[in-house]
Specification:
This is Glycosyltransferase family 2 protein. The chain contains 11 helices and 9 strands. With 326 residues, the protein is an alpha/beta fold. It folds into 2 domains: 180 residues, Spore Coat Polysaccharide Biosynthesis Protein SpsA, Chain A (Alpha-Beta Complex); 84 residues. Strands 1, 2, 3, 4, 5, 6, 7, 8 and 9 form a 9-stranded mixed sheet that branches. Strand 2, helix 2 and strand 3 form a beta-alpha-beta unit.
Length: 326
């Protein structure tokens, strides 16, 4: 039995996976591991390219673009290792982090899952990564910047405090190691999620099985957005901080974990913000002696985002199983 099964989801990223696996084989020592790649109908020569360099890789075809949760669940079902790792294709190892993480799970049975600190491509620690549910939920509200808003949201959605500085509420699915025995109790990833949010919801269930540790002395590089086609096209502003698919998934998570009330409050907030953002911009235009309707692209983009959220309203409200893909 392998010590570790590494599960990587592929969607048209053969070069990223080649680089990722090169780093895995270069730095991983003292453990026996297998690599499983689950392909989301890339419709290219990814398999031939990757297995030409790494023939021992076990390859699985989903047959359609199933997203993150369903593809990883197939990998988990097929894994033979006594520990399993969900690893993004756009990651690189920089040391023997895998063996170190396996050792933590082997020596601390009360730990349900572990991850490592994310580095950017320049090897600097990636800033502003969420580790609590409260941090995630507070970011969903579009309020004026400043300490007053921050204090209000912190009181409304406080963060937990742990004696262990490594303990967190959830771990990123870009690098998440656990045991099959934990998954058997917590359940697989929720397959209603297409992409994003599924690791947050899973973290809630994994956390019921034991502590979740973000190991501060372990690191890996996360390039991010390896297969995202719209990363460079999305202009982030204060009111348009969300990508549609990301937020549809996050709203589904809020509904599943916190119930109908929390979900309805968020949706009402987004709806009521539509006239607010228009009135605010018109007032700014009048103050600056410009035409009232000038430069409203940002406001119309926000309105379009909210319209997309409401396409999934009925399904999300009643928590219906499905495929929440934008």
């Amino acid at each position: 039995m392998p010590d570790l099964s590494i599960i990587i989801v592929n969607y048209k990223t053969p070069q990223l996976i080649l680089d990722c696996l090169e780093s895995v084989y270069t730095y991983t020592q003292n453990i026996h591991f297998e690599v499983l790649i689950v392909d989301n109908q890339s419709d290219d020569n990814s398999q031939a390219i990757i297995q030409a360099s790494f023939p021992e890789v076990r390859w699985f075809q989903m047959g359609y673009n199933s997203g993150f949760a369903r593809a990883n669940n197939l990998g988990i079902r097929e894994a033979k290792g006594r520990t399993i790792l969900l690893l993004n294709s756009d990651t690189l190892l920089v040391d023997n982090v895998l063996a170190n993480c396996v050792q933590v799970l082997d020596t601390q049975p009360d730990v349900a899952a572990v991850s490592a600190i994310q580095l950017q491509a320049n090897r600097q620690v990636r800033p502003n990564l969420y580790t609590t549910f409260g941090q995630m939920r507070r970011a969903f509200y579009i309020l004026p910047g400043g300490e007053a808003s921050e204090r209000f949201l912190n009181r409304l959605m406080p963060d937990p405090h742990y004696s262990d500085p490594n303990q967190v509420e959830w771990l990123s699915g870009a690098f998440l190691m656990t045991r099959p025995s934990v998954v058997a109790k917590a359940g697989l990833l929720d397959e209603s999620f297409f992409m994003y949010g599924e690791d947050v919801e899973w973290g809630y269930r994994l956390g019921k099985q034991g502590r979740l540790l973000l190991l501060r002395d372990q690191k890996f590089v996360h390039l991010e957005y390896g297969s995202s086609e719209d990363n460079q096209q999305h202009v982030v502003t204060h009111i348009n901080r969300f990508k549609s698919q990301v937020q549809v998934s996050q709203l589904l998570w809020v509904r599943k974990q916190y119930g109908i009330g929390a979900y309805l409050v968020l949706m009402l907030h987004y709806l009521l913000m539509i006239p607010v953002v228009f009135i605010w911009k018109i007032a700014v235009n009048l103050r600056d002696r410009r035409r009232p309707w000038a430069d409203l692209d940002n406001q119309w983009a926000y309105t379009k985002q909210v319209e997309i959220f409401f396409r999934f309203f009925q399904k999300t409200l009643f928590n219906r199983p499905g495929f929440y893909k934008v």
